[in-house]
């Protein structure tokens, strides 16, 4: 009985040794560099093949669709205001996209980390099936990834995934005080004269950079944009959103089969804020036919300095929009050389519509981009710090466009010539641009 028991024990020991050897070999095999097994961060990371760090084709386009064609990536941005995360600005289908994963590749070891993404679709979707979204990726510890891939699955071949550069990785001093974000230029835009006047007013008031999300415009407008690009004022972000989605020129869903409103304006505005978060002290969010006009100050810099002093801790400043109908004009500043240029001459439109009872005037904004988390068109959805409505006697938005109150007689409009304070500089600057582009 004793001899037989010894045999039994020996057999058990032998089995344990064999099983342990198999586990050790399997574990070593997992560590070989030619095998990629991805695990959900933070549990596991695996090495990439030698010489192939951070593989995958680098995305170069402003809008990149994923293979599901329900998710569109604009750009990732490093955001350490609450934690170490990569915030990816994108567009997603609000129902069909349930899960996404962030694939990080860490230098210099080339280890791949995969983490669950939080999909935060902005609340201002206005009924459209697609909306602006933040795809939030928790970054791995001891890793400062330069690129990230977004994928519907936690497993796969990283070689097949587009790779996106993570912007805002390094903090830098502000290079400009004011950047104007204009989104989106579409509809074969050809309001050339008003565009030039607006750009020159922005510069007079203190803007050093104007970022335009351009879908399309006229050939003449292209010549003007080329001038401003070469001057260093304008940065163009190509915005071919209609190549990917059925776009609406309306802000609200009309049950007409379109996918997203106003050419993805909200997504572009959010991207513009993050794109300029570390290079501009303030970001101005308005359209090309709108100008935030100070009434008590000569320019934006002195106005914002005063507003910040009066409102400590505030990062969002909202200005009331007022319509100056392009249908009501004055004979002043009828400059003959401008008459051949397509578009509106804003100097001839100084009558604004009166306020209506119980009708809210929409607002546009000047923001401290580092205090913005998510923005809509007329307000910020999430931010650090407070928002303040700037009184109309401090500044207003000069908005020259088609009238909203169409039946008002001229005598019911309010004559407001604050724009004429700048007429001398504006005329000189506009003539300079026209002489070098069109005339």
TrEMBL record:
Keywords: Glycosyltransferase, Membrane, Transferase, Transmembrane, Transmembrane helix. The keyword Secreted does not apply. The keyword Zinc does not apply. It is found in: Membrane. It is a single-pass membrane protein. Pfam families: Glyco_transf_92 (PF01697). GO terms for cellular component: cytoplasm; membrane. GO terms for molecular function: glycosyltransferase activity. It is an enzyme of class 2 (transferase). Signal peptide: none annotated. The chain crosses the membrane at residues 9-27. Its EC number is 2.4.1.-. Belongs to the glycosyltransferase 92 family. This is Glycosyltransferase family 92 protein. The lineage of its organism: Eukaryota, Metazoa, Chordata, Craniata, Vertebrata.
């Amino acid at each position: 009985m004793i001899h037989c028991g010894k045999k039994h024990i020996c057999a058990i020991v032998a089995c344990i040794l064999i099983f342990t050897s198999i586990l050790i070999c399997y574990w070593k095999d997992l560590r070989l560099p030619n095998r990629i097994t991805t695990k959900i961060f933070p549990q596991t990371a695996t090495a990439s093949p030698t010489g192939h760090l951070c593989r995958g084709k680098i995305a170069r386009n402003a809008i990149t669709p994923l293979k599901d064609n329900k998710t569109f990536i604009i750009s990732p941005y490093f955001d350490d205001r609450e934690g170490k995360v990569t915030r990816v600005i994108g567009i997603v289908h609000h129902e069909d996209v349930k899960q996404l994963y962030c694939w990080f590749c860490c230098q210099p070891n080339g280890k791949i980390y995969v983490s669950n993404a939080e999909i935060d679709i902005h609340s201002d979707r206005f009924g459209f099936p697609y909306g602006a979204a933040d795809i939030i990726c928790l970054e791995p510890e001891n890793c400062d990834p330069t690129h990230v891939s977004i994928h519907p699955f936690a497993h796969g071949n990283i070689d097949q995934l587009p790779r996106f550069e993570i912007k805002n990785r390094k903090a830098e001093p502000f290079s400009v005080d004011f950047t104007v974000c204009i989104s989106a230029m579409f509809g074969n835009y050809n309001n050339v004269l008003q565009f030039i006047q607006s750009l020159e007013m922005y510069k007079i008031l203190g803007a050093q950079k104007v970022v335009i999300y351009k879908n399309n415009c006229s050939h003449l407008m292209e010549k003007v944009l080329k001038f401003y690009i070469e001057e260093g004022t304008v940065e163009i972000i190509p915005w071919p959103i209609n190549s990917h989605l059925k776009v609406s020129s309306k802000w609200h869903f009309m049950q007409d089969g379109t996918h997203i409103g106003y050419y993805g304006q909200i997504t572009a505005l959010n991207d513009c804020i993050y794109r300029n978060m570390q290079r501009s002290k303030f970001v101005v969010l308005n359209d090309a036919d709108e100008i935030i006009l100070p009434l008590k100050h000569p320019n934006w810099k002195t106005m914002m300095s005063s507003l910040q002093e009066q409102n400590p801790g505030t990062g969002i400043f909202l200005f009331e929009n007022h319509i100056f109908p392009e249908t009501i004009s004055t004979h002043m500043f009828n400059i003959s050389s401008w008459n051949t240029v397509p578009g509106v001459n804003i100097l001839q439109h100084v009558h604004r519509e009166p306020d209506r009872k119980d009708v809210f005037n929409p607002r546009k904004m000047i923001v401290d981009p580092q205090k913005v988390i998510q923005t809509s068109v007329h307000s910020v959805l999430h931010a650090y710090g407070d928002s303040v409505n700037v009184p109309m006697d401090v500044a207003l938005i000069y908005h020259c466009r088609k009238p909203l109150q169409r039946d008002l007689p001229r005598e019911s409009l309010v004559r407001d010539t604050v724009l004429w304070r700048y007429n001398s500089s504006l005329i000189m600057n506009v003539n300079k641009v026209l002489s070098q582009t069109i005339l």
